[in-house]
Amino acid sequence: MGIVLLWPPMVSAEIYRWKDENGNWQFGDRAPQAGENHEEVQITPPALLGQGDSVNEIHQRTLRLRDVEQTERNAEKEAEDKERAAMAGACKEANDRLKRLNSRFVYVNDDGTERSASAQEVSEDIDNTKKWIKEHCG
Q1: Could you tell me which residue, 106 or 65, shows the higher pLDDT?
Q2: Dihedral in degrees, nearest 10, Cα atoms 53, 57, 60, 66
Q3: What secondary structure letter does DSSP report for 37?
Q4: How many domains would you assign to the chain?
Q5: How do residues 19-40 score in pLDDT, each as one tens digit?
Q6: What pTM value is reported for the model?
Q7: Three-state DSSP class for 40?
């Protein structure tokens, strides 16, 4: 059983450069024929991805971005929770109103005076309250 190592080969290839008879630069991995003037080109390989100071900077930016996104999600959840709590309160009030409308009661005007209501007015209030509960409270 053989083991295959997935490691970049540590081979350095030699690259040669020379001018041909037309004055154009030529490159190759073999030196030109004997007698032709040439030079060896030193090529520095690029840094491997994922190494160096920039990786730490990228990691730090990623962490900051993740923190900002988490803060935004928390704020959205808090706003949703407040809205849900407000709606639950409104639904409770509507259900309490429906109970009162189905029992004996009197209407109170804005100025505090009491008045009786017709059966039709009470029926409309009951229907409107039921409709609101159905639309907003499930």
Answers
A1: 65
A2: -130
A3: -
A4: 2
A5: 888 888 888 888 777 767 878 8
A6: 0.45
A7: strand
